[in-house]
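Margin note from the TA: students keep mixing up input and output lines. Inputs are the sequences; the output is the structure of the whole complex. Example:
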Amino acid sequence: MSEAGLAGHNASPEAAYLELASVVKRFGVFTALAGVSLAVERGSLVTFLGPSGCGKTTLLRIIAGLETQDEGRLVQAGRDISRLPANKRDYGIVFQSYALFPNLTIFDNVAYGLVNRRAERDRIKARVAELLKLVGLPDAGAKYPGQLSGGQQQRIALARALATSPGLLLLDEPLSALDALERVRLRGEIRALQRRLGVTTIMVTHDQEEALSMADRVVVMNAGRIEQAGTPQEIYRQPASAFVADFVGKVNVISAIAEGVGHFRVGALVLDCGAEQQRVESGTKVKLYLRPEDVVIDGAAEGNVNATRGEVQKVEFLGAFCMLTMKLADAPEQPLVVNVSRHSLDEMRIAEGTSLRVGLPPDCLRLLN
Amino acid sequence: MASIPATVTAPASARPAADSEARLAQALLLAACAFLVAFLLAPLLLILIKSVQDKGGAFVGLAQFREYLQSPALIDSAINTVLVALAVTLITVPLAFAFAYALTRSAMPWKGLFRLIALTPILAPSMLAAISFIQWFGNQGALKGLMFGHSVYGPIGIIISAVYAIFPHALMIVLTALLLADGRLYEAATSLRTSTLRKFFTITLPAARYGLVSAAMVVFSYTVSDFGIPKVIGGNFHVLAIDIYQQVIGQQNFNRGAVVGLVLLLPVVLAFVVDWRMQGQQHAHFSSRAVPYVPKRAPAFDTAMFAYCTVVCIMMLAVLGMAVYTSFIKLWPYDLSFSLRHYVFGLIDGGVIESYFNSLKLGFLTALFGTLLIFGTAYLIEKTRGMGGVRALMRLLAAIPMAVPGMVLGLGYIFFFNAPANPLHFLYGTMTILVLSTIIHYYTSSHLTAVTALKSLDNEFEAVSASLKVPFYKTFARVTVPVCLPAILDIARYLFINSMVTLSAVIFLYSPDTKLASVAIVNLDEAGEIGPAAAMATLIVATSTLVCLAYALLTRVLLRRTQAWRG
């Protein structure tokens, strides 16, 4: 009964909370967004990931009504917001710079949007206290923003944005002004809070780790277009384009020439790429992509169809793992980067000059355009 | 989400909602733009128009200019003006640089006091210097012998008076440039065993060169535009500012006045453009992470700098002191006994004191409305959205007053507001027009102060407010104004002090009812009443000093209350 009632309330429960259709934005001759379409599910956290200038912030500002798109439609909760000014839309926003009002106390900052709605005094007080508790700073009310650390200020900015219970939370690089430790901590807190409140959230970031670790869906953008939208796993494991493979995580780019069905020649080496990538005509120059951690070495390369030998040229110690740069005997022109754990390094006594058996798993080699 | 009551239920509507707030902001922006067009652009354009018309209003092309070029007296004035301005620039800038260098690069004592004394000329009308130098070096001057037979009336008097009056302006610009020095550069140079002299030429001078150019242009423009000094001490030596006055007031030849005005405008605009272009290149040279330079003790150097600053300050005090002294003695140089007669008989009994009260009124009105208008406009330009073209036009308009000599502005006002067809004609001869012209005259500096303060605010305050459904004017009142209060008070003080001393724009615009103190000084001096003229100048200095003290007190109290968050 109650479920039926709920379904009746939301005209179509499957419909996305926020829908963008062919959004175009130009600044003079520069096209910042070249027709972006996207659906954001209710209650999910979506990150816009991309290099600076890719249009991710512009897209967020268009959703917020801070910029106006030249073409395209935006629908939020079934309402066409395409031409609504910012103050008529339903969202809370947190900026990289916090943008807390420096001359107002933390209490007044959080209450800023509530006071304007003429809510009762006691209700405002209770609400601010609730929010401050929510972000883990229950006693900060009387302080000024300048007396708080960057991370604390960002929590207050979050509380202020959530105070009016917006249907949509927008985060514009909220963590990039913080130091590394605080960033990781706040990352977890924001995600936990977002899950608890179930508020639909869009976060802009240029930090892939942040995007992958926090998001339900990652939208990778480049040059005003969406390159790929998918779960973090999909983005990392099945990058849809060379740009995505290169931008998210590290990747070996292997220049090869197609040779028969699913086979590619690299120097004297012929790589088997499994069955799915057979369309390429023989003789075509292609690029193959392979994650450094997907390369198998030594015993693990036994029985690999793409096994060969290589010599370790450089060992870079990166803490949790080591990055080897290898020269393949069959393809000396094509350096290969391989990640191995510290333990493997010790066990196999790998050093510069060590010769190793390496295998390139066919199902991990990807041919991208 | 359950624990959080949803207070937001925006009505769903398929049609674009009207954004009354954005419309209000844009209407205000347009109103501000209309104000600048009416009170700045239109008067200036009319000068251009009048310069190609004859007295009857018929188009005569460049005939007026041809006539002008055939008049040797006017050509001489133009040459005189430029030569005097060059001389003042060549003297003032090195003096100010050495002074600023002493303040920033030596470890001498009393820096605060030296700085304070060096800035005192700002409080005085420029005529004060001229009066004082007449008393020192004039026909009956205390140190007449030092003139070796030359007369102080003429270029010499104009030059030394102008140097005194403009010194603090040049000092502040050069001081700012030298304060920007990056201590790390000096440390790097020291570690490379660079000599002091080489450091000066490779680090100090290059870093300060934009400031030096800027100071030179300000000094040059000021001297070219100033009317009070040549009026009082110029004698028969003619400069352009005097020519305009004579054409307009003496001969009622407004069109010829317009031509001279344009000739006067030329060097000032040139200086302005040079400065503008230099400033444009500057930004790349300074990093925001510069470490301030801390001077180390160097006994010989510090002593030399101390001696230099002492001499400069004594001379400055001597100028100010002589004017004050003149106002309190019976009759120079015959009866030097103390007397208040110049104040009582010269100012109060003669009714001249009315002009002092008019100046006070002008000062307060200009400070009040000017600050509101200039800060409000800067806010609209910098912080609201839409209408990019209007914004760009307004930025340009806001920069123009710096390049317009007061006399040219005043003349434009005559043309524009004295035209019977102008609906704003009713303003002519009122205090209102004096207030408006003074606001416009000192617009640029105030505008830049406001913009600098506004730019230091987070860009996203307005966006956050919009997301919280708080109208922009509420955030303006609750956040922008309180945070910018120091800059706002600074603008108010600047406008007040300048209103007290301004002469060049208002000389054409005052009516018998709105005569100002600075105008009274000129009239008194013309009538040979140098004692009362000095008394009036002293009153102005005293008033401005009081206002500065009140400002200091007010900012301290106000800031403690409203800027608690800064601590």
